[in-house]
Amino acid sequence: MKTSIYFIFLFFYLFISLLPSQSLAGNTDNVKEIAVVVNPENPVKNLTSKEISDMFLSRRRTFPSGDPVMVLEQDRDSSLREKFFRLLNGMTLKRVNTYWVRLQFSGEVQPPPVMSNNIAMIDAVRNNRHAIGYVPSEYVDESVHVILILKD
Amino acid sequence: MKLLKTLILASILMTGLNLICFNPDGIIWLLECSRVSAQELTGLKISGYGTLSATTHDRSDIHPVRDVSQAPENRFKTNFSAVMDSRLGLQAHYRFSSNLDAVVQGVLRDQSYITFNNSLELAYIAYRPSSWLELRAGRFGYDAFLMSDTRNLGYAYSWVRPPNEFYGWVPVFHTDGADATLRIDGDDSQWRLRVQAGEQAFKFALADSEYDAETESLQTLSLSRQSGPLTLKAGYSAFSLKNEMNIFIPLHEGLNQIADATASFFPEISSEARYLRDNTAFKGTDITYLTLGASYDDGQWIAQAELAHSTSNTEILSHGTMGYAALGYRIGDFTPYFIFSATRAGNDIRKSIADWSIIEAAELQETVINIINTTRMDQETLSFGVRWDFHNQAALKLQLDSIHINSFGYGLWFAKPITIDNDSSMSLGTISLEVMF
Predict the structure, then answer these.
(1) Which residues of chain A lie closer than 8 angstroms to B140, CB-CB?
(2) Which among A14, A46, B101, B260 is placed 20 to 30 Å from A63, CA to CA?
(3) In this structure, is residue A36 part of a structural domain?
């Protein structure tokens, strides 16, 4: 049975040879502002960056109104997500990933659903009363409510 | 028991069935599948983590183990191990809705017996009837200590392994049963109260024999408070052991016979025989843990400390007081750190009381006393290391441990019998590669 340990070595050989390149998906060089958006029916009109940070780190599960929070995420390795956390709470993606490994694999909480692009994000926030997400400002339309603007 | 097994099986099936996604074009593969469903608010996600590690040390008479589940076959033949900390975890998570999930996780790691049952780390269904309450059933992480449900997740912490003095001896890895979690959001803090009830069964090697560690009424209560960079946690857990250690059964019979036969003429021998019999019992032993922990991470400084007190009503089962403190500082992608950890046995070194040579049983007396002293844990470790986050999904760690083991305090090691009468010093060096995907 101990030979099964060799699978670990085989896996690492494969993983290292396929290790994704460090480059972040997407380009946010021209993203000036990131808008944190909620559903217009959400009674909460203001949130501090600390409150939003606690929600995206799954520490806080409710809006100040008492409603449950439904966090929606962008692609894990996207430069948009990197910029979002850097501006929101100063965390690097490496730190955010490490933080989530602990929560996810201990069974504490599973990571939020990941939206495939900014249009899907706006759609999901529009259709879910308790949703909160983020997009580059230019994607914002009147169907969602901007609760915080993050800029360099 | 049947209900539990059904629940564990159900959670495996619920996530497992979704591993193969049917679409009009046929079957899409695993990872492809999680990518497709990522566009929606429900669906399957496959993820995992791994550690590839190599450890070397400078003693030929002492062999390290990461925890009680390990019994290296090559002990005393080599002072190198590539399996002690290496592991591979794979998780499937199916989100049915924002308040219903099923999670299954398997971990391949070095254990005395690698079976499906002890490689299954998580298999639960979680339901959140409201934002402040979560109910889980099946197999879930053991929540008594700060890191007891993250012991395998090398990627999640800076050091190469949870401090051995604190985690090396804890025989509970997960719980099969049900738990309830209450979460309360304060203004700038979040509180969490969790109650777990269930059992755990796994086999491990002890004194070159197999022990079927089945717990009875395993109950755990923990309270944590998170506020910005600071997390505080208090935990209490209690359980009893269901099974006797098989090779001890003839020993117990022998001791009982001596106790009966000497009752009237040598009462001192009789009472010592009875004491030794009672204190080598596994079956029915009650064990408790009381723990306090704190961790801090402000982006620059990381600090963590835990203190625990464990009791057992027999001497043979390792117990006592243990603690550690760790401090690290981030410099870019590098995090140098140090850890000091120590454990002290809850029972004194056992010495003979009566002279058993009168009944020609001095050898048996010595053997039993040695067995009791083998499981005492009395040692401290100073560790230095550095973690290098060279990639968004991978990190490299280097750690050096300087360990001092006090005589009759080798409970955390495989040591040659001749060694345990004396103090020992040991250096241990480890290099680890951690990945997540």
Answers:
(1) 107
(2) B101
(3) yes
pLDDT on residue A12: 79
Q: Is residue A69 part of a domain?
A: yes
Residue of B83, B85, B184, B185 to mutate for A, most A C-beta atoms under 10 A: B185
Residues A132, A121: Cα–Cα separation, whole Å? 9
Q: Which residue has the tokens 């209490």?
A: B236
Q: How many contacts (CB atoms, under 8 Å) link A and B?
A: 137
- Compute CA distances B274 → B3, B44, B349, whole Å: 40, 57, 18
- pLDDT, tens only, B223-245: 999 998 999 999 999 999 999 98
Residue B419 distance to chain A (closest CA, Å): 28
- Whether A4 is in a domain gets the answer no
Cβ–Cβ contact A95 with B under 8 A: yes
Residue B73 reports pLDDT greater than 70: yes
Sequence-ordered strand ranges (E) for A1-144: 33-38, 70-71, 131-136
What torsion, rounded to 10 degrees, do the Cα atoms B162, B166, B170, B176 define?
Answer: -60
What ipTM does this complex have? 0.89
Q: What's the pLDDT band for A18 if we cut at 50, 70, 90?
A: confident
Residue B231 parent element (H or E): strand B230-241
Tell me, what CATH number does A116's domain have? 3.40.190.10
**Whether the predicted pLDDT of B26 surpasses 50:** no
Cβ distance A20 to B393 less than 8 Å, yes or no, reads yes
> Which residue of chain A has the CA closest to B153?
A102
Report the domain count for chain A: 1
In a domain, A11, yes or no: no
Mean of all residue pLDDT scores within chain A: 89
Taking the Cβ of residue A12 and every Cβ of chain B, the question of whether any pair is shorter than 8 Å is answered with yes
Q: Are the C-beta atoms of residues A33 and A136 closer than 8 Å to each other?
A: yes
Residue B21 pLDDT > 50:
no
Across B348-393, the runs of DSSP E, i.e. the strands, are 377-391
Which tens digits make up the pLDDT trace of B98-115? 899 999 999 999 998 888
- Which residues of chain A make contact with B228, given a CB cutoff of 8 A? 50
Q: What is the pLDDT of residue B34?
A: 41
Please tell me if residue B36 touches chain A, with a CB cutoff of 8 Å. Answer: no
Q: Does B87 touch chain A if contact means CB atoms closer than 8 Å? A: yes
Domain residue ranges in chain B: 2-245+282-436
